[in-house]
Amino acid sequence: MVLPPRKESLKWGTYPEDVLPLWVADMDFPVAEPVRRALRERAESFLGYPPREGDAGLKALLLEKAGLEGEVAFLPGVVAGLYGAVAAFTAPGQGVLTQVPIYPPFLAAIREQRRTVLANPLQETEGGYRLDMAGLERLAYASRLLLFCHPHNPTGRVFTEEELAALAAIARRHDLIVVSDELHAPLAYERPHLPLARFLPERTLTLLGPGKAYNLAGLPLGAAVGPKPLVEALRRHLAPTFPNVLAMAAWKAALEEGEAWLREVRGRLKANRDRVAAWARAAGLGHFPPEGTYLAWLKTPVPKAAAFFLREARVALNPGENFGEGYDRYVRLNFATYPEVLEEALRRLEKALQKV
Questions:
Q1: In 3-state terms, what secondary structure has residue 73?
Q2: For the domain 6-30+260-353, what is the CATH code?
Q3: What pLDDT band is residue 6 in, cutting at 50, 70 and 90?
Q4: Cβ proximity of 209 and 183 under 8 Å
Q5: What kind and span of H or E run contains 9?
Q6: Which residues of 202-221 are buried (b: 16+ CB within 10 A; e: fewer)?
Q7: Segment 201-256, tens digit of pLDDT
Q8: Per-domain residue ranges of the chain
Q9: Distances in Å between the alpha carbon of 107 and those of 54, 218, 225?
Q10: Phi and psi (nearest 5°) for 224?
Q11: Half-sphere exposure of 69 toward its Cβ, with a 13 Å CA cutoff?
């Protein structure tokens, strides 16, 4: 077990040394050897400006591996794509649709640019979280843009073909542009991930990146894929920049040679997912095992749950209230770590819950 150096890691360096960090979404595992090799080779070669449009070979690989068609624009990261899309497709004061709970930069991209969050909460059913299609239909008239996350962060839903087709039909009826963050697409478990763009190609901008699946968050890079008019509109609202040459080399190597590493990592993550699910059932917490991602969304009996667990268990989790209003009893737990770390964290969390 080799953990990142605390002074070089946001995840491990933010809290005191007695705190186990299961919060920010990166993995504790080393990156794939083909990626390390590609970085060494690139560092020993050319580190000058690349073409502004980026690596053409990487663009072709992205389309092939993601099963997408359309124009490709490189981004500084997926979050930049969210901000750019809100700026490109809406005006101050207008509403932007999204499902809550949701990855906090979705909400920040809307609010910080003086738009209004039109929150359509996921429905919590006996079988797990589901899209509220009736709620989406009611709200769609008030917006031109839907920010979508699939696989969903923080719940881990991998939406079904039926759900995606129904969402696409609503988007067409109401002339919605949909920006679909599919950053966690390679981290689906039992059910394969299907891109939303297969159901709504003419109105979808898909955001991709290597940061989650290949553990390259410290080499920020993303891509937007979609119809040329949408991609060009997005580009006009991004600061002019060059894609990072090391990040492009790493992403290309991951797509070309990283599949065996990714399969092994998915197996480790699935084992951790199942362990967290069993622990949550025994602890009486509300939880649906994620179908994708390495994030567990847990409903607890205590308000301000993340602050409680940090204080009482010395475990750092993401506060549920950051993912939308009304979720302060929830926490997001990142289980992309070694079993020894996870077991100690679960032991501490269980001990803290006994105090409630």
A1: strand
A2: 3.90.1150.10
A3: confident
A4: yes
A5: none
A6: ebbbbbbbbbbbbbbbebbb
A7: 999 999 999 999 999 999 999 999 999 999 999 999 999 999 999 999 999 999 99
A8: 6-30+260-353, 33-257
A9: 29, 23, 22
A10: -110, 130
A11: 6
How far is Cα 72 from Cα 213, in angstroms, rounded to an integer?
20
Once rounded to an integer, what is the mean pLDDT over residues 168-189? 98
Scanning the structure block, which residue is given the tokens 């077991």? 343
Answer for the pair 292, 187: CB distance below 8 angstroms, yes or no: yes
Instruction: Render pLDDT for 117-138 as a digit per residue (tens, 0 to 9).
Output: 999 999 999 999 999 999 999 9
Count other Cβ atoms within 10 Å, centred on residue 263. 9
If we measure between CA atoms, which residue out of 309, 303, 302, 275 comes closest to residue 289?
275
- Write out the CATH class of domain 33-257: alpha beta
Omega within 30 of 0 (cis) for the link into 303 = no
pLDDT at 253: 98
DSSP letter assigned to residue 292:
B
The phi-psi region of residue 288 (left if phi > 0; otherwise alpha if psi is between -120 and 50; otherwise beta) is: beta
Both tokens of 201, joined, read 């190609």
pLDDT one-digit tens code per residue, 255-281: 999 999 999 999 999 999 999 999 999
- CA-based angle 113:114:116, to the nearest 5? 115
Q: Please spell the DSSP secondary structure of 80-147, one letter per residue.
A: HHHHHHHHHH--TT-EEEE-SS--HHHHHHHHTTT-EEEE-PPEEETTEEE--HHHHHHHHTTEEEEE
Is residue 117 within 8 A of residue 98, CB to CB? The reply is: yes
For the cut 90, the answer to whether the pLDDT of residue 297 exceeds it is yes
For 35-73, how does the pLDDT look when each residue is reduced to its tens digit (9 = 90+)? 999 999 999 999 999 999 999 999 999 999 999 999 999
Gap between the Cα atoms of 188 and 158, Å rounded:
7
The C-alpha atoms of residue 23 and residue 98 are separated, in whole angstroms, by 23
